[in-house]
Specification:
The protein is α/β, with parallel strands linked by helices. The chain has 17 helices and 18 strands. Strands 1, 2, 3, 4, 5, 6, 15 and 16 form an 8-stranded mixed sheet that branches. Strands 7, 8, 9, 10, 11, 12, 13 and 14 form an 8-stranded mixed sheet that branches. The longest helix has 25 residues. It starts with a strand and ends in an 11-residue tail after the last helix.
């Protein structure tokens, strides 16, 4: 047997960044993958993604913290699959990762020997001519980066269908369903892509979901102002930071609002857009669906569930290219489907309530998610069975009782934000653990338990989605463990940068501004491409942010005193009492409790607010004196 230090299983985006962080920390690590190319589902030969796929996370957000997007000087856009794979290829070349990979290699079994504390791993390499070569190796640590999308899941009730059934991973192009009657099952981002694609050639397409979805548009300004909003028309364009969804979901200014107040503001904004463009517009459909989705938890709105960061299904429905049906139950007889207690959303009528809605279809495309399977991982007898629920793992990474030996990377799916960026942050933490600079908390299993309880409470409208995390809270909590909390105070030579720190989306590059692993130039290479006021949100949301920017430190201070005088254990450490109202949204989940240190940047926050107000006043005066100019996307 030969010996290596760390084995990383998977070379998708999460596996690549794990490999890079281990190598950069001076650790001996290799990454294996059963495919012939790195990149995971984004690789050209993955056979999982399909034509015209675009990411639902913007380019700068999907970039790793110390490797900016090559087109960052043009602005922000949503990459296609090819563009993202090109970025990953550049990343691999820049950090010299290819030499540390073994592709076309499967892990037959990984067994943790408790007596030695080592992993005994059997690998099979399929790249040799003739018979595959199997070898046994010993590793000190195991990092699993196979991704949450590794075992397609189709509900048992759909298997009664006598026609053709495809999982979303089997869908390649619209040609597969040309002239056919199609039912697309699910209302997530994969479903949106499949449904809008299938509508190009199918005889008809119906999208079915059991519960009302939270569909969010990728682009802010066009969604607010274009009655014929179509996301595909904007994909090739670059925008300023305030042009994309993250500007109204993941900034310090937004997260400074209490959750309840944010929810009221969000619903008011969506309602106003519906009135502006009409009930049968994309915006009207969005309001009709999200209002139903949020009605059971009005003061949590989008934070109570997994969102769909795409409105292309709504665009197709508004054009009359497909129907959307929300119904809790389905019955199937041969090729005839009946959806019970159905709400039908069409271009001409929103909604049409029906006790039973019958469908005759030829093909079902099941965008119904995946199961996690790790049957190739085993431990010595008496250790029990590995819990495959990521919510039971500390930081969705370290399983109870095995944290020193085993880590999972890429199993934290942000509510808004990218999986690879959470994977990068936790990989930085793993590297610090393995070189001995840090240790896991002694009670990490208990911390994971309280975090899981908080997640179930917070995301209660999609309780089965066990990989879901809150991006800002998750990233900040891991950053505190590492010691790389983003900088909030700018350099004296660039005082206007305080506005960027306050209003820009919390891009990964912010986590390189200071502390362990700091690479300030990496952040500067991104932030310097934009003006200080390029991320301001539309009114009246901006006015609300400015008001709360002034008053929330006082409310947060009161909450801090309550926590000090009446501490609450267990789940309360992760999700405080009355969390929707008595503190900023950034100070709950994952033990991001308020501390005195959090108040040291209050004056910086107030300075940012004053600078924005000054800018708005100056802009208003200028608009009276100077001729108005039409707003355009950033130049290509």
């Amino acid at each position: 047997m030969t010996t290596a230090n760390i084995l990383i299983v998977g070379t998708g985006p999460s596996g690549l960044v794990a490999l890079k962080e281990m190598q950069e920390a001076g650790l001996d690590a290799i990454a294996v993958d059963s495919r012939s190319s790195f990149g995971g589902v984004f690789a050209p030969d993955s056979g999982v993604t399909f034509e015209n796929l675009h990411l639902t996370i913007s380019s700068i957000f999907m970039s790793f913290s110390d490797f900016p997007a090559p087109d960052v000087d043009k602005g922000v856009k949503y990459w296609s699959q090819d563009e993202y794979f090109d970025y990953l290829t550049r990343y691999v070349e820049h950090f010299g990762l290819k030499q540390h990979m073994q592709l076309e290699t499967t892990v037959e079994n990984a067994h943790l020997n408790r007596q030695t504390g080592k992993w005994e791993v059997r690998l099979t390499n399929h790249s040799y001519p003739g018979e595959p070569r199997t070898t046994d190796k010993i590793f000190d640590k195991l990092i699993v980066a196979t991704g949450a999308n590794n075992k397609p899941k189709i509900p048992e009730e759909l298997m009664q269908f006598k026609g053709e059934i495809l999982h979303s991973t089997d869908y390649r192009s619209a040609e597969q369903v040309r002239g056919k009657k199609v039912l697309v099952v699910g209302m997530g981002e994969g479903s949106a892509d499949v449904a809008s694609s299938a509508a190009e050639t199918a005889a008809n397409v119906t999208v079915w979901g059991r519960r009302y979805p939270d569909c969010a548009p990728r682009f802010v300004e066009p969604f607010l102002n274009d009655a014929k909003y179509d996301e595909y028309k904007h994909m090739a364009q670059h925008y300023k930071p305030n042009g994309v969804l993250e500007s109204i979901t993941i900034t310090r200014a937004v997260r400074n609002l209490p959750l309840g107040l944010w929810s009221v503001a969000l619903q008011g904004l969506v309602s106003d857009v519906r009135k502006k463009h009409g009930p049968n517009s994309v915006q009207g459909l969005s309001r009709a669906l999200t209002a139903r989705a949020w009605e059971s938890d009005y003061y949590s709105s989008d934070t109570s569930m997994v969102p769909t960061k795409s409105a292309i299904t709504l665009t197709a429905a508004a054009k009359g290219l497909l129907d959307i049906v929300i119904a809790p139950e389905i019955s199937i007889e041969n090729n005839m489907l009946t959806l019970r207690d159905a709400s039908l959303f069409q271009a001409t009528e929103v909604p049409n309530e029906q006790e039973a809605y019958d469908l005759d279809v030829d093909v079902i495309v099941a965008c119904t998610g995946f199961d996690l399977a790790f049957d190739w991982i085993s431990c010595s007898e008496g250790d029990g069975v590995l819990n495959t629920n990521p919510r039971t793992w500390f930081k969705h990474c370290f399983p109870a009782g095995m944290g020193e030996h085993l880590a999972f990377v890429g199993f934290a799916r942000p509510h808004s934000g990218g999986i690879p960026q959470c994977a990068e942050m936790v990989s930085r933490y793993i590297a610090q653990l393995h070189i001995g600079n840090l240790k896991l908390p002694t009670d990490y299993d208990q911390l994971a338990s309280s975090d899981a309880a908080a997640e179930r409470t917070c995301f209660h409208l999609t309780p089965e989605y066990n990989v879901l995390v809150d991006y800002m809270a998750y990233m900040m909590s891991v950053a505190k463990l590492i010691g790389c909390t983003p900088k909030a105070v700018p350099r004296l030579t660039k005082p206007l940068d305080v506005v960027k720190y306050w209003t820009f989306p919390l891009w990964p590059c912010f986590f390189r501004t200071q502390g362990v692993g700091a690479k300030p130039d990496a952040a500067e290479n991104v932030l310097s491409k934009f003006g200080p006021f390029d991320a301001l949100t539309p009114m009246p949301l901006l006015a609300l942010q400015l008001l709360c920017g002034i008053v929330m430190p006082f409310i947060n201070g009161s909450s801090w005193l309550v926590n000090l005088l009446m501490p609450r254990k267990n789940m309360g450490r992760a999700l405080p009492r009355l969390y929707k109202w008595r503190m900023s949204k950034m100070y709950f989940m994952y033990h991001n409790s308020l501390t005195l240190k959090d108040f040291t940047t209050v004056f910086t926050q107030w300075l940012a607010v004053m600078l924005i107000i000054g800018y708005l006043i100056t802009k208003s005066i200028s608009s009276v004196i100077l001729p108005k100019r039409k707003l355009r996307p950033a130049a290509e």
